[in-house]
């Protein structure tokens, strides 16, 4: 299953943020970001997406802990 | 005996979260409760503080690959003591402030980040159960794509990966109109 270009781009930006690209690729993305406001916007949105996931995850963990409390000590 | 007991703790915590957390909970919470009560706190205080400590522990272990050099109970107890001290200190300062103000306002001041946080989480919920579960399992709970693929009935890790990026792209689109300046955390 090949990924469409939009998804490849999401994947590339993710690798960029994680710093897992090769030095050369990392540089390419940095340069592209410098000159491309559309990409800057996409990167900003992607960071926001990770933040949203983190918050949602934490909320789920809190709910799971509440449930354990009720099961064991409630 | 269940099979996860032979796994390293970090692996068990991620691969079998609920049971591993429940075991840690059963082992540690009574100690925390005892301590908080001795310090004049309530059961509710003990529970809240313990949950915050468990969240710190999970995030450090699963996301930052922290390896503990002491037992989980000792580690958690240490966090709880710190959190309790901070809470007491905060309460003390608030009381001192209120006394000088003469009017007693006991409500917590509105956290400025609270509303955007709720709004942000709302975007994840709007993706639907499958996307939400895949994204949270992978990015927050640190689960491996193999496990996510199995849980969601994907034939291959590759399809789960593609699905994960589709969900992430949808989320990215959904939040793209928001200004980043709103969400400093």
TrEMBL record, chain B:
What are its GO biological-process terms? DNA-templated transcription initiation
Q: Name one GO molecular function term.
A: sigma factor activity
Keywords of the record, alphabetical order, are: Sigma factor, Transcription, Transcription regulation
Q: Mind telling me what this protein is named?
A: Sigma-70 family RNA polymerase sigma factor
Q: Which organism is it from?
A: Larkinella humicola
List residues of the RNA polymerase sigma-70 region domain.
Answer: 25-93
| Superkingdom assignment | Bacteria
Entry coiled-coil feature ranges:
none
Q: Which InterPro entries match?
A: RNA_pol_sigma-70-like (IPR039425), RNA_pol_sigma-70_dom (IPR014284), RNA_pol_sigma70_r2 (IPR007627), RNA_pol_sigma_r2 (IPR013325)
Q: Which Gene3D superfamilies match?
A: 1.10.1740.10
């Amino acid at each position: 299953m090949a990924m469409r270009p939009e998804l490849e781009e999401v994947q590339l930006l993710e690798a960029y943020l994680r710093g897992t690209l090769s030095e050369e690729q990392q540089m390419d993305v940095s340069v592209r970001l410098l000159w491309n406001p559309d990409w800057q916007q996409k990167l900003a949105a992607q960071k926001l997406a990770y933040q949203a996931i983190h918050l949602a995850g934490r909320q789920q963990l809190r709910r799971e802990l509440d449930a354990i409390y009720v099961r064991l000590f409630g | 005996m269940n099979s996860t007991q032979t796994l390293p703790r970090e692996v068990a915590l991620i691969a079998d979260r609920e049971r591993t957390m429940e075991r840690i909970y059963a082992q540690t919470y009574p100690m925390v409760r005892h301590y908080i009560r001795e310090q004049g706190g309530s059961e509710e205080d003990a529970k809240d503080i313990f949950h915050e400590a468990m969240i710190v522990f999970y995030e450090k272990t699963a996301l930052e690959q922290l390896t503990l050099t002491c037992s989980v109970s000792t580690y958690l107890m240490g966090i709880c003591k710190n959190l309790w001290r901070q809470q007491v200190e905060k309460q003390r300062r608030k009381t001192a402030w209120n006394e000088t103000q003469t009017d007693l306002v006991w409500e917590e001041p509105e956290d400025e980040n609270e509303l955007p946080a709720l709004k942000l989480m709302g975007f994840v919920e709007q993706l639907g159960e499958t996307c939400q579960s895949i994204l949270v399992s992978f990015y927050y709970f640190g689960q491996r794509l193999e496990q996510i693929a199995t849980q969601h009935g994907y034939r291959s890790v590759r399809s789960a990966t593609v699905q994960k990026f589709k969900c992430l792209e949808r989320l990215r689109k959904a939040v793209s109109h928001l200004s980043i300046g709103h969400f400093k955390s």
